[in-house]
Amino acid sequence: MSLPVRATVTAKVEAVTPKGDEGLLVEFLRVYRDSVQLVVDEIWGLSEVPSWMGLHTMFYSRLIRMGFRAHHVSEIYKRAREVVESTRKNNGSKPILRKLTARIHTLDYKLDLDKKTIKIAVLYDKWVELKLNWYSYLNKYLDGSWRPGEILLSYRCGRFYVYVTFHKDIVFKEYSTVMGVDLNFNNITYIIIDLNSNLVSIGVIPFKGLKKALHLRRLAEELQKKHPRNWRFLKWARRIRARWLNKAKNILVDTAHRVSKRLVEVAREYNAVIVFEDLEEIRGNNNSGKRLSWMKPLWCYRRIQEYTEYKALIESIKTIYVDPARTSRKPPNGKKLKFINYRFLQLGEVVTTRDVVASWNLALKALKRMKGSRVTWSPNSPRSEAVKPRAKRGNPEAKKYLKTTTAIHK
Prior knowledge:
By secondary structure, the protein is of the alpha+beta class. It folds into two domains: 5-170, no CATH class; 177-400, no CATH class. It has helices at residues 22-44, 52-65, 70-89, 209-226, 235-270, 289-295, 301-314, 354-371; strands at 5-16, 100-104, 109-112, 117-121, 127-132, 147-156, 159-170, 177-183, 187-194, 199-206, 272-277, 319-322, 337-339, 344-347, 350-353.
């Protein structure tokens, strides 16, 4: 039986405090931040970051006298170590903490999901209750399968925010098909094959997010060219540039969420394993020409993969990565492959795209890795004559691949 995998989600909720208690929370967050900074300052000059026990010996008594509870102190140790280790790893200078945030242990808060309130322990064992502005889409984490974990309390712009984490253990479902996914600048092409390497379905998920984001980036760069020396000192120029770039970022995030959700829906429909390209250092590769080099910094391929992997994990769907080498140059069905141009090619007697061939080979590579030498190439697949990319418009044949029982690997 396969081991369970822990999935964690974080819900950001705005919180409101009763009148008079806001000062207690702000003071707690300020002392918490200063305490983390104290630990960072004292261990920064050491050649090696002390262990948790060493930090406990150095700081426990001092922090307890400041009014913290025991678990507050342990979270301060943890946060300080993370800050120092990550900064040293990036060869940065000594970090200076400014944000008012605090990580709260599960024993230092009480969450009432019925009343949508949370009580948080602050300095000198005082408790402050906050009313959560709950959102309806978060109710799916209240079905009993998700358990709350530690929280993060933040204060900025006069408002309190609570980041509540929920987690549960997930066991992957049995799969009956394999879904190869090829990520491109303006679409995602996927091919689904069964466990006998026969072609089942093919589809394209188009999107215009990158094109819109690149247009906004071009506007920002043209603004900088018009004022090359003083755009940083022009308030209106900085404001317009920031608005365009923030809008581009939001478009990319929304696009990644939309297409990843669609990929998981298709995988759930066919009960498929999702296969991605293991893309590494693609942005550092300068062999793709000036135009593509300008586009690659905004290409959110890694974000789409991460969003899809996480959404698939929630649905108990497995995601794997394979080496993409030569996937767009090798015939997946044993027929002759002839290139027409950079995008189109002829596979046997069918004209198709390199994206279709690449996604097909990705699925076959993953299947071969999962099943070993039992995988066979299938040149006479019943769907080989229809390898033309098209938008998915209903899949009546998907029903036979979708299991009605929740089978588990044994």
